Predict the structure.
Amino acid sequence: MQKSDFFEKVLKIMEKGYICDNCLGRQFAQLLSGLENKERGRAIRDFFAFLLEAGEELELDSSNFFSYKFRFSGLKGEKGKCVVCGDLFEGLDFYAKKAVEKLSGLEFSNFLVGTKLSGSLVRKEEDLWENVGIEWCEPMKSEVNRLVGKELEKESGKSVEFNNPEILIILNMKKKDVEICVNSLYIYGEYNKLVRTIPQTRWPSGKYKTSVEQIVAKPVLKKTKGIGSKFHGAGREDINAKCLAWRPFVLEITGPRKRKMNLKEIRDSVKKSKKVEVRKLKFVGSDEVEKVKSMRPDKTYRTIVKTEKDLDNKALKRLSLLKGKKIYQETPTRVMHRRADKLRKRVIKDIKWKKLGKKKLEIIVRAEAGTYIKELISGDKGRTYPSISELLGTKTEVKELNVIKIHREKA
Ligand SMILES: [Zn+2]
């Protein structure tokens, strides 16, 4: 680092008209920690004022020294507007006040400030950098964010959070306005679905009156006064299958006005539906959504099936051939209208059965995530192979289907 670099940079910056302390100091933001740019700028200006007063001949715009009382140099300057920020930093209070106004009534414990600079501010900053270099500088945005952030911390008693802020406060310099973006609230839990008549998530056509999502979200929406909900499940079961194993999910509430609530009350309130139960509710960050969605646990199903022909023991024994076998499933005819036609390969990890009648069978099967169980049983007109129907040598249909275990550990 050369001493002259610093000196020449200051000369270059101050020869072109008035520059405020913030903008001057920001070019040297990485020099000396524990100072704000405004203090850096002031110190540099003082030093150059001394030089001028002592008789140094420097090419500096006199407006930069309007506030000094020179005894010997005879220098007189008039204050202008900062050539870089247009005195933006003098007016930052306006944004802090506006933010406080717009935050009233919102419950939050942390926030983050972001700034959209106007095109002309961006250009002026770029001009400065082109002229002086960027060796020690800090971007204008980052200074604005920090200063307004600090001010808001003082005003609101809440703290700035970089990773997972509940509230995003955008200072829009072009519109001279503040935009508040309320980030979603995320609650992790695990659910049981006790009835065969509801889907996991809201059905677009309104075909089903309610869903696991709606039942779980209802009490939370009431508490949070949120705009809406999204339900992220670790897979899903058939509409007419019960889920008697605890399936992980993350409930996302968009635009919550309140964030605090007693999750035990939520759990109890869900239980009253008699359709769904939840447990292990806890507040989590948005990253939990990906974690839950990317879970690929094996599942064990208990299913009751009916066959067309009477069952014989020889045929039943053939079912053991499925254990550890890979099966092939083309997209089931029942979901063809909404899913792409693809071939899936899934492994059947275990299978057990019990004869309940001449044409009635209980089957307990553990399969990889994403196995179409109904089709494993019926064969779906040959689109799934091998299938239970094929091995039994008779048309076989599911009468009852329950998820009884979701395996977190790998088999
Ligand atoms: Zn400035």
Notes: The chain is about 30% helix and 25% strand. The two ends are 61 Å apart (CA to CA). The longest helix spans residues 37-53. Residues 88-181 form a domain with the VC0802-like fold (CATH 3.30.2130.30).
